[in-house]
């Protein structure tokens, strides 16, 4: 094979790779749009009247996740199944965002932490990397850390809306989450930096709870804790 023939073959390989990446980008753009729609919907819970509509918003969000599953099914067909990590960077950010949104919905519904397996079911992808397109552990953890920041914001807005028991429950949840992350030996620099931000979320929520205590509203919250969430 001559040098020119060699480079013609290389150009063919480059073109094929670029075509794959372009097809992936198109699907990722659609996923990002759906994620924005879900986020816009869920952001309504931060408004005063939004607390009464939480079940309805969660139901609508789950309907949007049907679109996400269809889009992810399309994404799976755009590259060879054994090259997940070669192209992973293209969808890493939007997948982390979708994990956060799924985790937020589950928290609003049950005030529990969604498992990686449950997120996989919501998104229609695998948890086990051996089975192809899957939810990477670090992507799952990044999404959960974003949830912590969102709940810190929700704790503040709950007080504004007159819901004094929710910040106490959020505080308990976030402290359990922090304890869980402390069990991990994080090597990923990006994930480690995001985890470092969790302590600020913990502090922010503690300040909300302390403020409720100073104002005597924590007693009211404790009395009403047996009511509806």
From TrEMBL:
Name the source's superkingdom: Eukaryota
Tell me the GO molecular function terms. endonuclease activity; hydrolase activity; metal ion binding; RNA binding; sequence-specific DNA binding; single-stranded DNA binding
Query: What Pfam families does UniProt report for this protein, alphabetically?
Result: Translin
Q: Keyword Cell wall biogenesis/degradation: yes or no?
A: no
Q: Name one GO biological process term.
A: RNA metabolic process
Describe its assembly: Ring-shaped heterooctamer of six TSN and two TSNAX subunits, DNA/RNA binding occurs inside the ring.
Instruction: Give the protein's biological function.
Output: Exhibits both single-stranded and double-stranded endoribonuclease activity. May act as an activator of RNA-induced silencing complex (RISC) by facilitating endonucleolytic cleavage of the siRNA passenger strand.
Q: What is this protein called?
A: Translin
């Amino acid at each position: 094979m001559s040098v020119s023939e060699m480079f013609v073959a290389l150009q063919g390989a480059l073109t094929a790779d670029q075509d794959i990446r372009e097809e992936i980008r198109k699907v990722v753009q659609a996923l990002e749009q759906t994620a924005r729609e879900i986020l816009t919907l869920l952001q309504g819970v931060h408004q005063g009247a939004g607390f009464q509509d939480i079940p309805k918003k969660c139901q609508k969000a789950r309907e949007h996740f049907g679109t996400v599953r269809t889009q992810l099914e399309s994404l799976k067909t755009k590259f060879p199944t054994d090259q997940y990590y070669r192209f992973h960077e293209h969808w890493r950010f939007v997948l982390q965002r979708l994990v956060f949104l799924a985790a937020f919905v589950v928290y609003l519904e049950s005030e529990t932490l969604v498992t990686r397996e449950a997120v996989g079911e919501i998104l229609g992808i695998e948890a086990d990397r051996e089975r192809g397109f899957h939810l990477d552990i670090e992507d799952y953890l990044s999404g959960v850390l974003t949830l912590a920041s969102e709940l810190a914001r929700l704790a503040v807005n709950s007080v504004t809306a007159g819901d004094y028991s929710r910040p106490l429950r959020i505080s308990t949840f976030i402290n359990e989450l922090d304890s869980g992350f402390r069990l991990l030996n994080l090597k990923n620099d990006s994930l480690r930096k995001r985890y470092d931000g969790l302590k600020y979320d913990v502090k922010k929520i503690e300040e909300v709870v302390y403020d409720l205590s100073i104002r005597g509203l924590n007693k009211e919250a404790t009395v009403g804790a047996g009511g509806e969430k």
